[in-house]
Model the fold of this input.
Amino acid sequence: MSIEVTNLSFAYGNREVLRDLNFSIPDGCLVNVLGPNGVGKSTLFRCILGLNPHYSGSILVNGKDLRALSVRQRAREISYIPQSHASVYDYEVIDVVLMATGSELKLLGTPGPEQLQRAHAALERIGIEHLAHRTYTQISGGEQQLVLIARALAQNARTIIMDEPTSALDYGNTVRVLSCVRQLAREGLSIVQSTHNPDHAFLYSDQTMVLSEGRLRAFGDPKDVITSELISELYHVEVEVNSLYGDKVRVCVPLSEVD
Ligand SMILES: Nc1ncnc2c1ncn2[C@@H]1O[C@H](COP(=O)(O)OP(=O)(O)OP(=O)(O)O)[C@@H](O)[C@H]1O
Done:
């Protein structure tokens, strides 16, 4: 099992954000987490990553409690693409990606040909090999996001958490990245990503998790989970869920636009 969460609750001070969550994510599963702004998606991710260590309940990643591991050991289990970040790396893109391989090196060791090859392969996989020698702080926000995804791949962890990975990407890059993410899950990685677009969850998730008012509102096949009733309840927008191509694809249409 990639991630096992049992009776997880978490509060900032006396403000409870997550309440008694229970779920398991098997290996090779692509999970989309849906829920309104401020519901606690990033907070849940930070608990899983061990960055919010003062939770109650239990979280195991690949059978391990990450709070008990060193930063290096954690990096072998899970990689993380945060929602936003300050562009502090005044390095070439290839060096930013290479940093992901740091957990494998001895103290003060430098990356060797294997790490370099993996970093280039990750850039190629995301379709941005041409950016390898550009300065990270001088590429666009969307390009930086793609670099961070390549960096997560180069880290070689079995589980990846992505906090709204496509929020800064144009339509083409969104489709390319989400379809690459789905392929990575098919190859055995477990990927948990948050999204604000239920259509993405239909297209690019094996399982959809819905958080509402601190609780796990639903978790399962996106076609079972994403209904017009649930979307209306979560976002206070009336939608119709339409089925296309013999129900291979479903899309949400806001009723206010078609009435
Ligand atoms: N460090 C913090 N200290 C106190 N409260 C926090 C902190 N971080 C987040 N919160 C609060 O906890 C709640 C959950 O925040 P979180 O960022 O997890 O939501 P989210 O679902 O990821 O939101 P969004 O979709 O807008 O990114 C929010 O009400 C937020 O204001």
Notes: The chain has a mean pLDDT of 91. The chain has two domains: 3-226, 227-259. Residues 171-186 form the longest helix (16 residues). Residues 227-259 form one domain.
